[in-house]
## 1
Amino acid sequence: FRNPVHLPRAVDTRRFDPAYRDPELRARWGLKPDGLAVVYVGRVAAEKNLDLAVRAFRALEALRPDARFIWVGDGPALAQLREANPDFIYCGTRRGDDLARHFASGDLFLFPSLSETFGNVTIEAMSSGVATVAYRYGAAAEHLRHGQHGAAIAPHDEAAFIDAACRLSLEDESRQWMGANARQAVEPLRPAQVAADFDAVLEGIARRRSHADVHAALA
């Protein structure tokens, strides 16, 4: 391939916006105003490596007893997860503005999956202004900057994943700063901008072909 052009995947930055943060929703989760909402959004299934998310939360919970783990999604592993962890908060599948509220009302997003083709939820969390811990894979490898937007962990390094979750659970100001940085970083990924960038690519191709046709006719 010659002259490749990278066109990033878009995220709806108008929907996934920190403005959707909802204190009433957080209160229903049993959180005080300064409590820590740890969020997972996605399919609840074995391929998502969710045992690591549970272990990471239990480790940070020992440091932050005010933390709550919020699960948004459904899947074949949900019943087993509920049985083993009845203290977690299970919100089921959410869509639209309701999903946006659940994202933005979190403080820390944990995403331990290593089975994604991309992983839209990573950039949706970033767009929602939520610091993220994820493996440096898929969307996280492309967009999540370690130490700036959360923690991008080398794939399969479970100890580092858990350590990052624990560290960020204690660093409230840094975590909020990272969430704000994450939001700013993905703002250029709004659909209108990505579509405009795609139009520009097509226009460039058309111009080059037109020039080539002219040269061929004059040869």
## 2
Amino acid sequence: RHEVSDWVSKGLSYLSSDQRLAIELAYGGGHSLEEIAAIMDCPLSTVKARMFHARVKLRNLLPALAGSGVGARDRMENERD
């Protein structure tokens, strides 16, 4: 369990600060999308877009962070840019 937590924390560090905050408020804090929009002072559609892009980025990054596949380090560096 500790290993998974470290893995996800590393993945979150690759997100923009807005994406990371939205993900942390939703999954860590249990806030609704409407609540997140109010907390972040932005439209609901912006929260939805940030969540979508954050999940896509994490879906692509997490296998590389786990060390699976050839070129994992290259994929992580490309995501950082």
## 3
Amino acid sequence: VITLVIILIIVGTVVGRNSIGRNVSSGKGSVGIPAQNTAPLVNDIASLKKRDPGFNESKFLGDAANLYIRTQDAWSAKDLLPIRSRFTEELYAKSERQIEGYKNRCQTNHVERVSVLNTRIIGCTNDAKNDIITVEILSRITDYVTDDKTGNVIRGDRNRELFMTYHWTFIR
């Protein structure tokens, strides 16, 4: 089995009903970059399995779901170090700047009651060095921001469930 070193690059979408608009590019939340008009994803999983007969799709998707939950937990804790190795330099730096903004404003963006409803590979290709695998993650969360001093909710709703679709692209 090839040792998987997966560097998380988020180039996909954050889609769904979300009153806070959490996405990396707007500086308001968790990992994810809004969808851009790009070419359709190639889903050549057969070639991946041919190159790597030990590739286990179920395990990969389980690892992606686990990373999604860990990412949400790290975001709420304002501490990305536990998942640092899974981010590119650029994404990590951007996310850290966002977290510093919350710290400077004495606020916390809470992502709670995280549940991954489904994962599936929607794109799979490779370049000269890497496999590039895009996973769609369907989830349910609550997402709100509180004032650290008072505990009052500033944005969002502690009780409103949001159903989100994320497209995360992994490089291995």
## 4
Amino acid sequence: ESEAAFAYDAQIHSLIGMGLFFASFTILFMVNNLLEDRRLGIWDRVIHSATPRSAMYAGHLSFSFLTGLFQIVLVFLLFNLVFRVDLGQNWPGVLITIALYTLAIVAVGLFLAGLVGNAQQMNIVIPIFAVSSAMLGGAYWPLEIVSNRLLLNLSLLTPIRHALDALKGIIYYDYSWAQLFPLYAVLLGFAVVFMLLGLFLIDRRGR
């Protein structure tokens, strides 16, 4: 009955949902290297050296971003080219969605790193955040079958929800750029807000 009510393909949904979900683990654990540097004393050496903190942040975060981006793109290309899973015709839109989602997860990871005290605590927080976000955001099952308004409203607080909406719009409904831009704006908003909060918290703890 659900399949008749909305566009749904189990193979496609599993690919995009699990692809984004598992990449979030990679990205968040990469961001956790910031806290590892603090534990190992590298952070203090950088602070007292001529190297600006901005260079250290940029190095860590760009590496996390590129690693996550490469992982998702590789998985999507593999399934599209080898297993012939149809991901629509708007590949630029797919790539922009992936890039903005990756940036948002990097920013959320930085925020979480600023909240926790050390790398060990971050290792505990990452699975809790990744799994709960995937469940709320619709990575495991389509949100169209969820009727609880509270859960649907909470899903709007997860980057994966908006990335999945954009990808499903591209694949199932051939969304135009005008339809994609609001979803991109939300993902970019996640990235900007959590990046600023994360930098503030990390910098304050690093003093």
